Amino acid sequence: MYKLSLLSILAQLVISTSCFAQDNDSPYSWDWKKDGIWLGAGFGGSVGGLLIGKEKTPYTEEQLNAIDKDDLFVLDRWAAGNYSKSASVASDYPFYGSFAVPFALLFDNTINNETVTVLGLYIESLATTSAIFTLTAGLVDRPRPLVFSEEAPMERRLRKTSKRSFYSGHVAASATAMFFAAKVYSDFHPDSKLRPYFWAGAATVPAAIGYLRLKAGKHYLTDIVLGYTLGALTGYLVPELHKKKEKSLQLYPSAGLTPMGREVNGLAIRYSF
């Protein structure tokens, strides 16, 4: 799982740039009151989840021996017993790297003009994912696949974090960051030929992380699928919900000629629905 300190850093970046005005050409709108409440709820949920998680107690050897992998969901049993320290370490590189992708968008001159809004939406997306994940991980006890591995050190199997398999925070957070980047780039550049590459990266990176987390014995298949789905939806929907709506009623000047050849000037009304 990613740390709250990351969210704090991002929050400071938004606050430090809040003096800049939003560009009217931005596809998004930002409301400091409504979005401030949203951010507060996200941060509050994250803190609450962490506090709940701290109350977990580690497995005892007796409890560990009593766990039966046949009690697992049938699609998850094959992963029980997986363990690889190298795969766990390898999963961290694309995980942390994915957080930098939305920042790379700011090198685009068009998107850079909307730094405040884009960073605000990014923090909002991560805060939402963080709150959902930490609360779920804190409330649900599910043994990680490595608990069933004879190769995993007993000290590692007995940690209280070994109860936090459900669901994958690595996959959820990376999916949020990657899908957010693809969505924002697509909204700013709907005709760009680079859009397919952004979406391909958004789909591939969290999936690769999920594979490594499976191999590492950190999560089951259902943990990966749920984390991927929730993260991708958050990364896509937060920007989508902030898109500006086109005005249904528009007034604009109009000029033309009558059948008799006389020039007329006036106002035209357009209503879309």
From TrEMBL:
Domain Phosphatidic acid phosphatase type 2/haloperoxidase: 118-239
InterPro entries per record: PAP2/HPO (IPR000326), PAP2/HPO_sf (IPR036938)
Transmembrane segments: 37-53, 166-185, 197-214
Keywords, alphabetical: Membrane, Signal, Transmembrane, Transmembrane helix
Signal peptide: 1-21
SMART domains membership: acidPPc
Name recorded for this polypeptide: Phosphatase PAP2 family protein
Species for this entry: Costertonia aggregata
Lineage, highest ranks first: Bacteria, Pseudomonadati, Bacteroidota, Flavobacteriia, Flavobacteriales
